[in-house]
Write a structure and sequence with these properties.
There is one protein chain. The protein is about 30% helix and about 30% strand. The protein is an alpha/beta fold. The strands form three sheets. Strands 2, 3, 4, 6, 7, 8, 9, 10 and 11 form a nine-stranded mixed beta sheet that branches. It has a four-stranded mixed beta sheet with strand order 12-13-14-15, with helices on both faces. It has a two-stranded parallel ribbon with strand order 1-5. The N and C termini lie far apart (about 70 Å).
Length: about 375
């Protein structure tokens, strides 16, 4: 009898330690694949929209189901994540499960303080993975989660969009843990993609110490991407006397030196880029002189975008490039004279050098 009891106890402990007791079928869970948060007109209250895939969809039923019916949304009003989960659970016949969360979106009207609180709360949520993508945009945010013909359940367009980082011209995607790290690290202003629509994600939202984010336009966002080595397939359209010349697949590396002089960050950054010439005007001969001319035009265009990004960063007292962080990590003793919270607000005096080389011809994705 004692051996029998010991055997049962061993089996029970084995199941507990391996987690088998918590194994549940997908059809027994309400799986959240996306979450959208936006403030309401009442202080302290937010709308929380949970996005669920329709688990009833099967391969055979897909042709007869509209893309919009492959997901369903549940929106509640609550002051916190936990309260919103309680409200949502009341409308579900299955247990709410956050373990497959892929995207978190919040309204661009949320302040730095509100966003930081949200990220800290999600970090404390044990079952929530930290590799969800983050994005901000204009309300209503639900439009960012509409199904497209490209995806079927349980796929999510935004998740695949950011996962395919090398597919995009500029790598704007940020994981939740990356954004959270930037909120906690002195010397860098947190930044994430700003979307004006599901297929229009080419701007950047940069958060200062307080208030709403500052939005970098398309050119300024490209400058930020070049300065942070996030250009994968950059494209430049260059007007010349003979017509339009286009450079594509622009990417490369960077080297940065940062010093603090007179209360300002003196930055010396060199970008070494390569590109492909994908379009030239009719009748133009590809001489060495013409290639050098196009390379110089391309360098000037990249520098203009980089300086535009630095200019708006200075105007908004932000540092999405992490220049102050670079200086802080290599000058801890000198940084002790400056409050950590003010590092990312230091003015930036930058000298940018771009070396662009055309390495081939033809259009290639």
């Amino acid at each position: 009898m004692k051996r029998y009891k010991f055997y049962l106890l061993s089996v029970f402990m084995g199941l507990t330690l391996t987690g088998c007791w918590d194994q549940r079928s997908v059809t027994d869970r309400s799986i959240v694949v996306a979450l959208a948060v936006a403030p309401t007109s009442k202080p302290g209250l937010f709308t929380w929209t949970y996005v669920f895939p329709d688990v009833a969809v099967t391969v055979s039923s897909l042709p007869s189901i509209k893309p919009g019916d492959q997901y369903y949304f549940k929106t509640v009003t609550a002051a916190s994540l936990a309260q919103s989960q309680s409200h949502v659970q009341q409308a579900l016949s299955r247990g709410l499960f956050m373990g497959q969360l892929k995207v978190v979106a919040w309204a661009s009207t949320m302040t730095t303080e509100q966003v930081t609180t949200l990220m800290n709360t999600l970090n404390h949520e044990g079952l929530t993975p930290k590799v969800y993508w983050v994005i901000t945009g204009r309300s209503p945010l639900v439009k960012l989660f509409y199904a497209t013909p490209q995806e079927v359940v349980p796929g999510l367009y935004l998740s695949h969009f950011f996962n395919c980082s090398k597919c995009q011209q500029f790598e704007l995607g940020r994981y939740g843990w990356q954004f959270w790290v930037d909120t906690e690290t002195p010397g860098i202003s947190p930044a994430l993609p700003y979307a004006t629509g599901l297929s229009n994600i080419n701007e950047l939202a940069v958060y200062g110490r307080y208030g709403r984010p500052n939005i970098f336009n398309g050119d300024q966002t490209q400058g930020w991407a070049y300065l942070t080595a996030r250009a994968n397939k950059g494209t430049l359209t260059l007007p010349t006397q003979q017509g339009i010349t286009t450079l594509s697949r622009i990417h490369g590396s960077k080297s940065v030196q940062v010093q603090l002089v007179g209360g300002a960050l003196h930055v010396t950054e060199t970008l070494k880029l390569t590109s492909t010439m994908s379009q030239i005007p009719a009748g133009v001969m590809l001489t060495q002189k013409y290639l050098l001319h196009i390379q110089r035009l391309g360098e000037h265009a990249v520098i203009a975008r980089c300086l535009a990004a630095i200019r708006v960063a200075n105007q908004t007292h932000t540092d999405p490039f992490g220049y102050a962080r670079t200086w802080f990590w290599t000058n801890n003793r000198g940084a002790s004279r400056i409050p950590l919270a003010q590092l990312a607000t230091l003015p930036i005096d930058a000298t940018i050098t771009v070396k662009l080389t055309i390495v081939g011809q033809g259009v290639s994705v």
